[in-house]
Design a protein that fits this description.
alpha+beta, four-stranded antiparallel β-sheet, single chain, 142 residues
Length: 142
């Protein structure tokens, strides 16, 4: 028995690019922490997300590193090459060293699985709402 198109209007799997930024203390193994992640619909969106993060961090880099990163990777051919690598099913990464930490932006092609509705309710990813953490003080917001 095959499913009719009306029963399955959304593709179960869609291509995309998983992006993340990881920070770690330089020279200290085991200190890597994922700081942010983004499910990009394609290579162009992934590279734009990395560019935005790099522009933010560039202000705390040394002048030579900031100039190189902005001229080569953000505004120059480096980001175009990264986008081409992602289109060819390759990974791309950029690591910066601001101070004692290193920040690495990574992007890799993936296939995202569509989350189905269960009993007429949206998938958990769409109904999750971050809540304020209570601090134990009487003046906290609700």
């Amino acid at each position: 028995m095959t499913a009719s198109p009306s029963l399955c209007p959304v593709p179960l799997v869609r291509p995309g690019v998983w992006c993340e930024v990881i920070s770690a203390y330089s020279g200290a193994p085991g200190t890597a922490v994922r700081r942010d992640g983004y499910a990009a619909p394609g290579p162009g969106a992934a590279v734009r997300w990395i560019r935005a993060g790099v522009r933010t961090v560039a202000s705390v880099l040394g002048p030579r590193q900031a100039e190189f990163v902005l001229d080569w990777w953000v505004d120059g051919p480096g980001s175009e090459r990264a986008c081409a690598r992602l289109r060819e099913t390759g990974d791309c990464a950029l690591t910066l060293y601001p101070g004692i930490q290193e920040l690495t932006w990574r992007a890799r092609p993936v296939r995202f699985l569509h989350l189905a509705e269960v009993n007429g309710r949206p998938p958990c990813g769409r109904r999750y709402r971050p809540r304020l953490l209570l601090t134990g003080r009487a003046d906290h917001a609700r």
